[in-house]
Amino acid sequence: MYTRSQRSPIPEYYTYTRWLLVLIFVVLIVICFGSFANAKAVENVRSNATFLMSSLFAHRSSILFAKSSKPDSADIYVSKSVSISTTVLGQKFDYTIKVGNKGPSVSKQVLMIDTLPDNIDYQSSVVSVGAITVNGKIVTWELGDMNVAALETLTLTVVTVKKGTFRNKANLKSQTPDCNKCNQAISPQVQCYDFADIGIQKTVNKDSVLLGDTFEYKLKVSNKGPLTAQSTYVIDTLPKQLEFVSASLSVGTFGINDNNFKWTVGDVPNGQSAEAILKVKAVHPGVFTNSAIVYEQSSDPVLEDTISTSPTVIIYENADVSVFKVANQSVIALNDEFYYTVTVKNSGPTSAKMIKVADTLSESLEYIGAEAGSGIINWEPNQRLISWDSFDLSNGEEVVLKLKVKAIKIGELKNIASVKSSVTDNNLSNNTSECIKNVIGLRIPNVFSPNGDDINDTFVIDGIEAWHHNELTVMNRWGNNVFYKENYKNDWNGSSLLPGTYFYVITVSNETTQQQVFTGWVLIK
Predict the structure, then answer these.
(1) Which of 75, 168, 297, 344 is the most core-located residue (most Cβ within 10 A)?
(2) CATH: 2.10.70.10, 2.60.40.740, 2.30.40.10, 3.30.379.10. Which one for 198-316?
(3) Max CA-CA distance within the chain?
(4) How is domain 76-193 classified at the architecture level of CATH?
(5) 387-403: per-residue pLDDT in tens?
(6) Do the strands 229-237 and 291-295 form a parallel or antiparallel pair, or are they unpaired?
(7) Is the pTM of this model over 0.70?
């Protein structure tokens, strides 16, 4: 505070302003009272006042102009951005610092000074102009002289060394006066964590399977660091369509409880990984995905990779339906009535629905009838087709069709039964069954000539060898037996008999057929 004797001197232009106001006041008085005074005197006062006022205004303007003039100046500015907002210990990231000059003059010897916080250390830098010097936490960018409208860039790479939240400030200096004193920039906030970044990936080796099939899931746990992930474990709840079979682990132990699979991995160092292979069985049809989640002792700043969902898997229903056809007799004689049994079985794993069986009978057979424990049986004589359908079989269940027929022709009997259902069957090798039999009979000649020419010299009965037991009796016209033989071998030549007509009785039998008797006559020439 000034005392009266030390009062600050009044600026010169204030003094002139005060005299100007006094003169103006005098002139006004003269003008007001001019009519009462000598006109010439008044005019002289007016002229002198005008001259004095002009002189005062001119002198004051020169003073003000001298006061407002300044030396050369420049408006330099700085901006700062950062490449990330969150990071972990040991991770590198970049600051981008831009320095410009808005003029109006060249800015001399510009410096950018950036004092790094305790959380980060200098790693490297790239500049568009100038040079970088580093002294501990202080980074100095020497840009030199900056022309008007110049804009330069510094990319500053740092590494995190301490957890926490921090910002970073850049300051500018120049030898040229700056008309805008706001020469600093503060970066956005960065959060540094000191946790491990643990993640999991889940894959599957098949995207579609059949009911009852097994397939595998692969779990891979990886630690991106920077710290060791401690007390790591994985939880994988299997869907209801699956049943756990086994697990193979690279490290750790596992447990399974009500389809909840827990893999205790343990500690996973930075950059390391662990794997588990889960073998499962498809027990219910459906479409589903499956997720696994990895946990560690401390919070993970990157949660997106702590859960992994496998690709979609489809489980299809299927049943192994088979058919087997067999005759109840090993030897079938002409005119025999016998049975075929057609057995249909489902070996699973799911129920077989809307089963259909088809069996086309040979022309050598005559259809008599059929019966079964379930389903509907139809006989279509024009196509000689037996159709048996409209029944279901559970896993492991079987049902039998009993088909009664009669052999009406001698020769080979070939019958094929086939089966199908509305459920997918991946084993088609057992969906058909073929039964081949021979209908045996006797072809008995009505003449032979025992003349020693080796042509038709004996009584040859075709088919008699197929019978387990046979008897041949030959009689003359008076009913007297002239030849008898058990297990006849087609070797009788009738040489002891006179040419003529004789009568025969042939009896044949097998273990599985009834005895048959054939009678007729034969001419011996």
Answers:
(1) 344
(2) 2.60.40.740
(3) 207
(4) Sandwich (2.60)
(5) 999 889 988 999 999 99
(6) antiparallel
(7) no
